[in-house]
Amino acid sequence: MAGVARREWRGIFPPMVTPLKGRDELDVSGLERLTEHLIVGGVHGIFVLGSTGEAPSLSHRLRRELVGRVCRAVGGRVPVLVGITDTSFVESVEMARFAAEAGAEAVVLAPPYYFPAGQPELLEYLQHLAPEMPLPVFLYNMPAYTKLFFEPDTVLRAADLPNVAGIKDSSGNMTYFHRLLGLFQDLPRFSLLIGPEELLVESALLGGSGGVCGGANLCPRLYVEAFEAAASGDLPRARTLHERIMVISHAIYGVGKYSSSYLKGLKCALSVLGICDDFLAEPFHRFREPERAKVRRALEELGIMRK
User: Fold this and answer.
1) Are 52 and 83 in contact (CB under 8 A)?
2) Cα-atom radius of gyration of the chain, to the nearest Å?
3) What pTM was estimated for this model as a whole?
4) Percent of the chain residues past pLDDT 70, beyond the cut
5) Across 51-68, average pLDDT
6) Fewer beta carbons below 10 Å: N end or C end of the chain?
7) Is residue 269 a part of any domain in this protein?
8) CATH number of the CATH domain containing 42
C-alpha cells in the first residue's frame, strides 16, 4: 500500500454535532463545552462535518469557522477528522487543504452525491483526488444519503492509493462489513470503522477498528468502554454496555416520527444537559416542548441527568 501517514486508527471518533444559534451562526460556547465533554469522555478523536454534524446544510464559510474553532479547542489532544464531501471536486480539495492548515489530522470523503457514478468512475475520482490530499483520507460509505456506495473491490483498489487510510461504513449492512473484514484481514493499518452505534460491539468483536457513533456526543465514555470491552474479548461486559447503547438508541432517537428524529433527539438531549443549543439547520427544526419533555424523562430514567 502506497502513501504516507499509515498509522492505525482505532477507537471511538464521535461525529460531532454542530452547535448552532441560527442559520449561519455557531453556538461558540456550546461548541467549546461539547469539545471538552468529548475529550474528558476519553474519545480517540473527533470527526466534524459529518452527517450528524449537518455538513451538507452548512455554508462553506461556517464549515471553515467550525473546523478552525474545533482544532483550536482540541489543541492537539486528540486527532480531528474533517468531512470534505462535496459535489465539487475543487471544493473537496480546498476544504482538505484548509483542514490541514487548521491542524486536522485526517479527512473523510463520501461519494459526490448528485450524479449517479459507476464504480469505475468512483475509482477514477479517487485516483484523481487522493494525490491532491494533504492528509490521510477515510472513505465514507453512506448509501442511504448519497445513493452511491463503495463496493468492496473498489475499496480494496482505493487502499493502494496514496493517503487512503480506511473507511467509515454507515451502510448498516453487516454482510458488507464482513466482506471488508475479509479483504483487509492482512492489512491492519487500513482502518475499518463502523457508523451505526447499534453495530459497534458486533463489529469490534469481529475485528473492526472502532466506531463513529453519534451517541458518543451524549455519553462518550459509554462508547469508549463498549469498544474496549469488545476489542479485548470481554464478552459479558461488552454485552452489558451494548444493551445500554440500545436503550439510548430507542429512548432518545425514537422520539418523534420522522427520520430526522435521530438528530433532533441527540441535539435536544445535549441541550437539556446544558451542553449546547439544539438549533438545527433547515429544513429541520428543534423539538417542541412535548418532545423535549420526553427526551428529558428519558435522560432521567437512564440516569444521565438527575431528576
Assistant:
1) no
2) 18
3) 0.94
4) 97
5) 97
6) C
7) no
8) 3.20.20.70
